[in-house]
């Protein structure tokens, strides 16, 4: 049995568009394809098979032994999931390879049958990736489509593949494998944004910007410090995803419908073959658990919220009112009626699409609320929100990195804007504390100093020493070393602060951690 890594690389999650399925139903509006691209929405039938002939050949379900009638067309349209769960085909084939190999090892099928199954699965995978596989809605889902096609292809040996396996544990195995790969891809995309932000900081070394609270000017901060605040948030996002990956990486295969099996299977063998940490201990939990899905969507939602805040900042900063940044034409759009417009639309959509990702989480939480014991068909509805969340978050990350690499900061505009707002007031209060004044007293003294500035229409550094001494005798000539934006920034010294030395240390840490710099990042030139 090949190790999991060789069977499916993480990049294959979005690598192959799934061909068009000619159905009598309207397909969903989204299915994962190549990263950043919508997949084909129907699956391709071979030239020799028409949709009408498939409908005429409506076959008995693989589970149809106790039924006397076929389901109605309305029921078939309503219950099918092949229109979206075919995105799991690689993982389904991967699980079936491991399962067949284990069954042969345990004497539950012959080596010859195993080899026939493995060859058939290889051929089915080839057909799917070449757009030649016939997906059928009367076969309901990705699992039944592949198994039935395998039976058509190799005959009796294929009927042994579902030994000691239910679709309940099968789909959870597929889904955990898919989510594991999705996490790996998302982490890689987050790293790309972190590198872009650090690179942007390196390009703007020493630039001071106004820091805001309540969207009011508060204190001066280094731009690098601001950018690294998002790098830190994204690092926590990676931590959440990796924690989720650790918890989801347990194998449900062999739990069957809910109670396990009396057949002599080796769940540890299949778990190891698929790269899981171990089999899930409880078969009931194995088929009913969707914690890993909710946790993944919660992690994605937090990432989306972080990106939405970055988007909001940059949309504001690109406005004429701020004018702090200028996006390049390559990441901007225009207006259909106003010729002068240049809009930062990518970051507006990053801000907007966060609502979609949060909505996917709410869908899953609501879906799972109050479900009765073990598996229920409701859980078929867990796939589309997950596919949508992952696709949307990766798209948001990609465009955020692209935007960061294609903006310039307007130093002159920022420097002209810095004096307003008395951003050095807190530094002045710290000066008085160093003189022995209680902070609450210094706060009051500086407040009166600001009021004097307002009345004189000037900045704190413009006040005469006599003016300051008129408010408090604690002021001395050395006060001017604490006034002004540059002096204020230089006085910050606490760990993690915006002081020049502190930020230089932070930048050095992230440059080394992310292995980025002028030589390794082409966007630094």
UniProtKB/TrEMBL annotation:
Its EC number is 4.3.2.1. GO terms for molecular function: argininosuccinate lyase activity. The keyword RNA-binding does not apply. Residues 423-490 form the Argininosuccinate lyase C-terminal domain. Pathway: Amino-acid biosynthesis; L-arginine biosynthesis; L-arginine from L-ornithine and carbamoyl phosphate: step 3/3. InterPro entries: Arg_succ_lyase_C (IPR029419), Argininosuccinate_lyase (IPR009049), Fumarase/histidase_N (IPR024083), Fumarate_lyase_CS (IPR020557), Fumarate_lyase_fam (IPR000362), Fumarate_lyase_N (IPR022761), L-Aspartase-like (IPR008948). GO terms for biological process: L-arginine biosynthetic process via ornithine. Residues 65-359 form the Fumarate lyase N-terminal domain. One of its GO terms (cellular component) is cytosol. It holds the Pfam family Lyase_1. Keywords: Amino-acid biosynthesis, Arginine biosynthesis, Lyase. It catalyses: 2-(N(omega)-L-arginino)succinate = fumarate + L-arginine. Belongs to the lyase 1 family. Argininosuccinate lyase subfamily. This is argininosuccinate lyase. It comes from Trapa natans. The lineage of its organism: Eukaryota, Viridiplantae, Streptophyta, Embryophyta, Tracheophyta.
């Amino acid at each position: 049995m090949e190790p999991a890594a060789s069977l499916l690389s993480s990049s294959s999650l979005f690598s192959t568009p799934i061909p068009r399925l000619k159905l009598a139903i309207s397909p969903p509006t989204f299915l994962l394809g190549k990263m950043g691209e919508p997949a084909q929405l129907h699956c391709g039938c071979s030239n020799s098979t028409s949709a009408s002939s498939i409908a005429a050949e409506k076959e008995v379900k693989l589970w149809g032994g106790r039924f006397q009638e076929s389901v109605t067309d309305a029921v078939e349209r309503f219950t099918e999931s092949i229109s979206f769960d075919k995105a799991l085909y690689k993982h389904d084939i991967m699980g079936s390879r491991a399962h067949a190999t284990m069954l042969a090892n345990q004497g539950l099928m012959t080596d010859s049958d195993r080899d026939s199954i493995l060859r058939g699965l290889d051929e089915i995978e080839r057909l799917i990736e070449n757009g030649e596989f016939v997906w059928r809605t009367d076969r309901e889902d990705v699992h039944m489509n592949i198994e039935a096609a395998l039976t058509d292809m190799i005959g009796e040996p294929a009927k042994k593949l579902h030994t000691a396996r239910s679709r309940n544990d099968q789909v959870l195995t597929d889904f955990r494998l898919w989510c594991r790969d999705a996490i790996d891809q998302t982490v890689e995309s987050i790293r790309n944004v972190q590198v872009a932000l650090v690179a942007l900081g390196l390009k703007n070394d020493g630039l001071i910007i106004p820091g805001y609270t309540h969207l009011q000017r508060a204190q001066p901060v280094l731009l690098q410090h601001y950018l690294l605040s998002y790098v830190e948030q994204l690092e926590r996002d990676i931590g959440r995803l990796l924690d989720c990956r650790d918890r989801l990486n347990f194998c449900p295969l062999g739990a069957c419908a809910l109670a396990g099996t009396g057949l002599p299977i080796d769940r540890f063998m299949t778990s190891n073959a698929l790269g899981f940490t171990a089999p899930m201990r409880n078969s009931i939990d194995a088929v009913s658990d969707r914690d890993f899905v909710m946790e993944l969507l919660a992690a994605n939602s937090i990432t989306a919220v972080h990106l939405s805040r970055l988007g909001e900042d940059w949309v504001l900063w690109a406005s004429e009112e701020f004018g702090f940044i200028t996006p390049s034409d390559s990441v901007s759009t225009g207006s259909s009626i106003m010729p002068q417009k240049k809009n930062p639309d990518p970051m507006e959509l990053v801000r907007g699409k966060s609502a979609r990702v949060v909505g996917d989480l709410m869908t899953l939480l609501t879906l799972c609320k109050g479900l009765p014991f073990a598996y229920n068909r409701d859980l078929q509805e867990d796939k589309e929100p997950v596919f949508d969340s992952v696709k949307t978050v990766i798209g948001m990350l990609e465009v955020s990195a692209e935007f960061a690499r294609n903006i310039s900061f307007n130093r002159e505009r920022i420097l002209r804007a810095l004096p307003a707002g008395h951003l050095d007031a807190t530094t002045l209060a710290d000066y008085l504390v160093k003189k022995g004044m209680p902070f609450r007293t210094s706060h009051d003294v500086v407040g009166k100093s600001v009021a004097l500035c307002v009345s004189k229409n000037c900045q704190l550094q413009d006040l005469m020493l006599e003016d300051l001494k008129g408010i408090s005798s604690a002021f001395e000539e050395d006060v001017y070393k604490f006034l002004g934006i540059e002096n204020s920034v230089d006085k910050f010294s606490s760990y993690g602060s915006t002081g020049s030395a502190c930020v230089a240390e932070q930048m050095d840490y992230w440059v080394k951690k992310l292995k980025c710099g002028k030589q390794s990042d082409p966007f630094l030139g």
